[in-house]
Amino acid sequence: KEGVYLEVQTTLYDQNDHLIFIRDVTRLYLLEQMRKDFVANASHELKTPLTVIKGYLETLSMFKDSLPASMQRGIVSMTDQSQRMEHLIEDLLLLSRLETNEKREEHQWHSIQDVLETIERTVKPIISENHTLTVSVPNDSYLYGAHSELYSAFSNLIVNAIKYSPNGGQISVIWENNEHSGVFSVADQGLGIDPRFIPRLTERFFRVDKGRGSSTGGTGLGLAIVKHVLIHHNAKLQISSQPNIGSTFSCHFPIDRVRQDAMLASVAAN
Ligand code: ADP
């Protein structure tokens, strides 16, 4: 995109005068654009070779029993790692789409209960018997937005609550309709986060504990995705946490995107 990009800032100089700062940020903007294009293209190019590797791995797995133990372990490890790489590529592509505003999904009314029921079904396999997951949504609560984006944001928060509660505990998923907003929150009784790190959590690839992320299979992109999805829905993320006590991640959606209305059931279904 051609043109000049300017950043304008104004500050009150004394009682009547303002200072205006104008900064040419064209180079910065173009560099950022190049970075986004590179990440999108590289992620896309990685998909094809990975599909081929996964295909051969599946074939090899079928003959696993006839192979020596060390090779069997190798196949399991390669399958796990290729799965991890697939998640990473999917997350990078989703983040690129969100950042570049490309291929945007149409916004519609969605039943929050339906979205959360689907997530509940997919997270079941990773919940241990020490976890208790409760979901509370008032009947006929609807949210106006992009289904797959909301699904990604909400499931990232729920999966994180499970991953970072290694000793189990209560995980409460709540939707509340307030006077000025609709609030989706996920509270856990897990590891918690040192307050110093909270402002950095939504940065790409940021992890409080580098080792923690890789052992839990995370990509470090989950909260960056949550942040961008919320920006697209004019919503805000609030994080409160105490180390070894637990964390609460809340998404505040503006009231014009929220309805508690049985009539919307038919709109959402069509
Ligand atoms: P990851 O793929 O590593 O989970 P995220 O972007 O989802 O990446 O989260 C970034 C980091 O924030 C995580 O690595 C973890 O250190 C911390 N984090 C996120 N959610 C929680 C939580 N519910 N409890 C404790 N720490 C969390």
Automatic annotation (TrEMBL):
Keywords, in A-Z order: ATP-binding, Cell membrane, Kinase, Membrane, Nucleotide-binding, Phosphate transport, Phosphoprotein, Transferase, Transmembrane, Transmembrane helix, Transport, Two-component regulatory system
Entry EC number(s): 2.7.13.3
Function: Member of the two-component regulatory system PhoR/PhoB involved in the phosphate regulon genes expression. PhoR may function as a membrane-associated protein kinase that phosphorylates PhoB in response to environmental signals.
Keyword Calcium (UniProt): no
Subcellular location: Cell membrane
Enzyme class per UniProt: transferase
A biological process term (GO) from this entry: cellular response to phosphate starvation
Residue intervals of the Histidine kinase domain: 41-257
Name by which UniProt lists this protein: Phosphate regulon sensor protein PhoR
Covered range of the whole protein: 170 to 439 of 458
Primary location class: membrane
Catalysis: reaction(s): ATP + protein L-histidine = ADP + protein N-phospho-L-histidine
Organism: Marinomonas piezotolerans
Keyword Electron transport: no
Domain of life (superkingdom): Bacteria
One MF annotation (Gene Ontology) recorded for this entry: ATP binding
GO CC annotations, alphabetized: plasma membrane
